[in-house]
Amino acid sequence: MTRKVLKMWILQRPVHWLLLIALCVLTCAGYWLLWSEIRLEHGRCSSPSSAGESLISRLFSRAAFKPLSKLTAGGRALAQSLVPADQRAAPAVDFDFEEQLVVLYNRVPKTGSTSFVNIAYDLCKPNKFHVLHINVTANMHVLSLPNQIQFVRNVSRWHEMKPALYHGHMAFLDFSKFQIAHKPIYVNLVRKPLDRLVSYYYFLRFGDNYRPNLVRKKAGNKITFDECVVQKQPDCDPKNMWLQIPFFCGHAAECWEPGSAWALDQAKRNLVNEYFLVGVTEQMYEFVDLLERSLPRIFHGFREHYQNSNKSHLRVTSSKLPPSESTIRAIQKTKIWQMENDLYEFALAQFEFNKKKLMQPDNKHVQRFMYEKIRPK
To answer: Angle formed by the axes of helices 335-358 and 325-332, to 10°?
Structure first.
C-alpha cells in the first residue's frame, strides 16, 4: 500500500521530486567544498594526503591560496621585467660607488679651471677614468629644456664612460628634477669677483700663454681697466661680475637677473646642499688636496702633479694691470660687487670649515672614525 502511494505521489508531483533531489545535491556539494578548504588550509604547513587530495585542491593550493606577500613579490618581478634593461635600477647591494662615480665640475670662467682640468687630462689614463668637456653652442651657460633632459640621461646612463669627470662652463643643473636615482657629485671653484672681472677684461684683449697665437675678441683695444671705469664703458660694467651667483643658482630665470636677492640666497643654498666641495682660486692646492683625500678613485696623484708639473698655473694673462685704489673703491660701492663678494666670502668660510675639520683638534693628525658597540653581537 505504501509503495503504491509513493509511486502515485512521484508520478503526480514530478516538480517537487526534482526540487528535493537538487536540494540534496547542493547540500552534499557544500559539505564537500567546506572540507576541501579545511584540507587546503592544513596543506600550507603539512604535506597533504596524496590518496585523498583532489585535482582541484592541488590547483588551489599552488595558485589561488598563495600568501599575499608572495603575490606582491611576483608582481614586482613582473613589473621589473617589463622595464627595458637599460632603464632598470640596479639593486643597492650591487651599486659600485667607485666605478659608477661621476663628478661634475661646472667651472666658472677665469677661476683657474684650466689648470685644474689639465691635471685631470694628464692623469685620466693612469687612473682609468674619463674626462669629458661639455661644449654648449655659442658658449651659452644655460641649457634648453630638451638639452637638459638629454644631458642628464647621458651622464646617468653612459656607463662606458664611468668613472668620469665632466666639466664645462654651464650653470648648476638639479638632477633630482629628472627622476635620477644617483646624482653626480658637484665641485667648483670661486674667485674674488673683482679679480675675476679684471682678469677677464684683459684676457679678451691680450689673450694668455695657453694659446698665445689666438686672436681675442677685443684684440687691439689698449684702454686700461681704470680708464674703462672712468669712461663707464660696458666692458667694465659691474653687471659683468654677475656670473658666480647665477652659476651656483642654476637654470631659473631669476638667477640671471643682476642684483637679485633671491638668486644669491638660492646660490648659497645650492653651494651648501648640492656641492660636495667648493674651493677658492687662491687656495688651489688645498682644494686639490681635499679632493684627493675624499675621492681618490679619480683624484689620486693630483697633489703631486699640481706641485711638480707645469700645469699648476696655466692661462696667465699676457698683459694685466692691477686696478687703482680709486677704481677698487668705485667698484666696491656697487650692489653687484657686494652681492658677488658675499657669495665668495660665504664659499670661503665653508672651504675653511672643511679644511679645519680634516684634522683632529691637535692639528697634527687626520680625523678618523670607526664603528663600535655593535649589537647584537
So the answer is: 90
Task: Identify the residue with better confidence: 55 or 313.
Answer: 313
C-alpha cell at 119: 691635471
Selecting among 16, 42, 169, 365, the annotated active-site residue is 169
Q: Is 169 a catalytic residue?
A: yes
The residue written with cell numbers 508520478 in the block is 11
- Residue 146 has what pLDDT? 97
Active-site hit among 133, 159, 167, 305: 167
Residue 310: which pLDDT band, with cuts at 50, 70 and 90? Answer: confident
Residue 305 known to be catalytic: no
Q: What is the greatest pairwise CA distance in the chain?
A: 139
Q: Please, are residues 281 and 115 in contact by the beta-carbon 8 Å criterion?
A: no
3-state secondary structure of 95: coil
What is the pTM assigned to this prediction? 0.73
Strand order in the sheet with 102-105: 130-133, 164-167, 102-105, 185-190, 275-280
Helix (H) or strand (E) holding 39: helix 14-43
Would you list the DSSP string of 266-333? HHHHHHHHTEEEEEEGGGHHHHHHHHHHH-HHHHTTHHHHHHHSTTTT---BSS-PPPPHHHHHHHHT
Please state at what angle helix 284-294 crosses helix 113-127, rounded to 10 degrees.
30
